[in-house]
Amino acid sequence: MKHRPEAPFGRVATAIITPFTSEGPIDYAAFWRLVRHVAENGTESIVVCGTTGESPTLSKPEKMALFAAAVDAAPDTVKVVAGGTNNDTAESIEFAISAAESGVDGVMAVTPYYSKPPQHGIIAHMHAIADATDLPVMIYNIPGRTGTLIEIDTLVEICEHPNVVAVKDAVDDLDWSRRAIEALPEGIAVYSGSDELTRDLVAMGAVGVVSVASHLAGREIAEMVDAVIEGDEEKADALHRLLMPLNEALFAEPNPMPLKGALTEYWDAVGVPRLPLMSAKPDSVEAVGRALKAITEDRSS
C-alpha cells in the first residue's frame, strides 16, 4: 500500500440529515443542536445537503441557509462541506460560488446524474466546479444513485486539478476501490462512502469515512478508523462487528428514512423525510434501536 495521505476533512465526516418541522419547513433549531451533537461525538467534518440531507428536495435558498447555520453551529474544530451540486454544470458552478460566500470549508461534487454524460464530460464538469472557487473539493463517486461510474482513469485526471483533494468512494466494489486508491495521485485522500465497508477501505489506504451511522455511533466509528490505521486489527474487527447491525438497520430502507426515524425515537424530533421518501417502517426503527442498545452496553462494559 502506498503512503496514506493526510485527511483534509478529518477521519470521520458526518453526512448530516436535514431536520424538518411537523409543518414541513426546515427545523433550524434542531439542525443546530444536531451539528453540536455529532461534533461532540467523533465527527471532524459535516457534509451538508448531501444525499442523507435530502438535497434533491431542497431549494437553493434552503441550502444556503443550511450552510450558514452549519458554519454558525460548528465548533472551530469541525469543518463544513457543502453538498448539493447537480447534473447542470452551470448551476453547479453558481452553487459552489454561493456556498463559498456562506463560509463553508469545502465542496462535495457529485457525478452528474440522469444525464449519463461521457467520461470526458464528467472531467469537464468536475473541473468547472473546482475552478469556480478556491475551496477544496471532494469528488463523490456513487454510481448506484447517479447511473454513471467515474472510471479510474477519469478519476485520476479529475484529481490532477489542484483544488481536488479527496474522493468519496461509494462504488461498493472493494477490488475496484483498491485499484483506484493505488492509481490516484499522491496526496488525494479517499473516504469510504459506505459505512459497512469503512474498515476494509481504510485498510486499503482510505483515510476515513463520510458516514451516516456517525449520527448515532460516531465515537465507535472514529475508534475503528484509528484502530485500522494504527494496525490494531483485533480492535478494528471487534468494532466492525459491533457496528454492522447498525449499518444494516440504517440501510434496510432508503437512506435517510431509518436514520430520521431512529433520531426522533432515540435522540430528538427531526421530522419525517420529504416526498418522495417516506417515514421508516416501525420494524426498521426498532432494528436500529436494538443495534444501539448493543453499542450502549459495549460502551458501559
Descriptive terms for the model:
301 residues, alpha/beta, TIM Barrel
User: Which architecture name does CATH use?
Assistant: Alpha-Beta Barrel
Strand order of the largest sheet: 1-2-3-4-5-6-7-8
Indicate the proportion of strand residues.
Answer: 5-15%
Q: What is the top-level CATH class?
A: Alpha Beta
- Please name the CATH topology: TIM Barrel
Number of domains: 1
Rg result: 18 Å
Largest sheet: 8 strands, parallel, barrel
Pairing-aware structural class of the strands and helices?
Answer: alpha/beta
Percentage of residues assigned to helices: 40-55%
Low-confidence stretches: none
**DSSP strand count:** 8
The outline comes out as globular
CATH superfamily: Aldolase class I
**Alpha-carbon distance between the two ends:** 35 Å
Mean pLDDT: 97
Summarize the structure in words.
This protein is of the alpha/beta class and 301 residues long. The protein has a single domain, classed as Aldolase class I (TIM Barrel, Alpha-Beta Barrel). Helices cover 48% and strands 12% of the residues. The chain has twelve helices and eight strands. The protein has an eight-stranded parallel β-barrel with strand order 1-2-3-4-5-6-7-8, surrounded by six helices. Strand 2, helix 2 and strand 3 form a beta-alpha-beta unit. The mean pLDDT is 97.
Give a brief outline of the structure.
This protein is α/β, with parallel strands linked by helices.
Note the topology.
Layout: E1 12-15, H1 28-39, E2 45-48, H2 60-73, E3 79-82, H3 89-101, E4 106-110, H4 119-132, E5 137-141, H5 143-146, H6 152-158, E6 164-169, H7 174-183, E7 189-192, H8 198-204, E8 208-211, H9 214-230, H10 233-250, H11 257-266, H12 282-300
Parallel strand pairs: 1-2, 1-8, 2-3, 3-4, 4-5, 5-6, 6-7, 7-8
Helix pairs in contact: 1-2, 3-4, 4-6, 6-7, 8-9, 9-10, 10-12, 11-12
